Amino acid sequence: MKMKLYAGVAAVALTAGTAQAEQITVFGPWLGPDQENVEKVLGAFAEASGHDVRYTGSDSFEQQIVIDAEAGSAPNVSVFPQPGLASDMAGRGFLTPLRDGTAEWLVENYAAGQSWVDLGTYADASGNDQLFGFFYKVDVKSLVWFSPENFEDAGYDVPETMEDLKALTDQIVADGGTPWCIGLGSGGATGWPATDWVEDMMLRTQEPSVYDAWVSNELPFDAPEVVAAIEEFGAFARNDAYVAGGAGAVATTDFRDSPKGMFASPPQCYMHRQASFIPAFFPEGTEVGEDVDFFYFPAYAEKDLGSPVLGAGTLWAITNENEAAHELMAFLQTPEAHEIWMGLGGFLTPHKGVDSGAFSDPTLGKMNDILLGATTFRFDASDLMPGGVGAGSFWTGMVDYAGGKDASAVAAEIQASWDSLK
Q: Do 53 and 24 touch, CB atoms closer than 8 A?
């Protein structure tokens, strides 16, 4: 059996059962159904290539991969849930650069292709920037959920720009309704939903390079650009007329409960900004596409920053080089590698060459259209910041801000916490 795998611009034909067959180990964070799905993808590669492919999943991936690399026993390919750890390991000499031509392939074949090159490029042990990571399986966060029936009854149209969204927000208030449901509660992680709002606002008010500088702290957290993005969030969250329960309820409402107001009669709110996973917390029996739908959290027309998308995703990198590892990375460039998982569910991809009909769920296809329409993709900033900031002072600072504290003061405290880590 033969399959053509595309490494950059060169096609490599692999023949099963030949002397070139090798064992290849893949280590990642997936367990349960996701492990079964990735094993189907890897099984297709094994059948095409003749390689013996073995996947291991762990819920302690981030700790174990460092231990294995330091011990000289790393798997051939590792699947990183966040770029930050991959960047650290590249700098320590634990990753192998991808083959020449991969960056050009990404620019040509992935929506917002340069974004994916940037996200997978890190300094090696000598300080030279190289492409180490290939993104495969992506999540989208820049979504607004709404009830089509509520919109139709009130005569509202889906907004296409941020200007339209703000005008709709005011129109709902003028009509006697409440536009938004917002909740920041999440136990020990309370505050994280607000970080997504701020990240989306950074992408809608600043160039991608400014977002990147913020993530790395080259741009201080208390810089005017960041404070302005926090206040963009506050324009929605700190207005009593805009939020179900009033602004005072934002910090104390659990994020899992906050969208339920859309389903009340009459509706307690009309819109809820949240990532693609939120339907898991909708009332039982809710049908996405019928009872509830979503639209792209829009960009400002006047700022001319394109259509940025905030999200997350898994990055595949070579942690113990052999030829089969490079061939697997080439296989991930084929539409087939994406379409297999598209048919199994829970998968989005920026690959422009896939057959959109392969999605098992039309809702996923619609989300993927948002991803394919992105002019810029950026990873969740708080996930890339040091843990004490991204999963600490940023969270708590947003709770303080939602409670009425000044944005500049909050930003200064977050920056101080970052400085204390240096």
A: yes
Concatenated DSSP letters of 21-75: --EEEEEES--HHHHHHHHHHHHHHHHHH--EEEEEE-TTHHHHHHHHHHTT---
- 319: nearest Cα among 7, 118, 26, 8: 26
- Residue 377 pLDDT: 97
**Measured CA distances, 48 to 17, 228, 386 (Å):** 10, 52, 41
- End-to-end Cα, the chain, rounded Å: 55
Could you tell me the two tokens for 283? 């009332």
pLDDT tens by residue, 332-381? 999 999 999 999 999 999 999 999 999 999 999 999 999 999 999 999 99
Find tokens 């394109």 and name the residue: 306
Whole-number Å distance between alpha carbons of 391 and 382? 7
Nearest in space to 302 (alpha carbons), one of 166, 172, 143, 156: 166
Q: What is the pLDDT of residues 23-79, one digit of tens each?
A: 999 999 999 999 999 999 999 999 999 999 999 999 999 999 999 999 999 999 999
- Exposed e or buried b per residue across 314-350, where buried means at least 16 C-beta atoms within 10 angstroms of its C-beta: bbbbbbbebebbbbbbbbbbbbbbbbbbbbbebbbbb
Token code pair at residue 422: 């240096």
**Distance of alpha carbon 370 from alpha carbon 154, whole angstroms:** 26
Question: How many C-alpha atoms does 340 have within 13 Å on its Cβ side?
Answer: 18
Confidence at residue 20, expressed as pLDDT on a 0 to 100 scale: 77
Dist CA 102 CA 410 (whole Å)? 42
Given a cut of 50, the residues of the chain with pLDDT beneath it are 1-19
Buried residues in 78-113 as b, exposed as e (16+ CB within 10 A): bbbbbbbbbbebbeeebbbbbbeebbebbeebbbbb
Given a contact cutoff of 8 angstroms between Cβ atoms, the answer to whether 404 and 139 are in contact is: no
What pLDDT sits at residue 4? 44
The two tokens of residue 22 are 């090798």
The per-residue pLDDT for 2 is 38
Cα dihedral: 190, 193, 199, 201 (round 10): -120
- Which pTM was predicted? 0.92
**CA 293, chain centre distance (Å):** 19
User: Strands 121-123 and 129-131, how do they pair?
Assistant: antiparallel
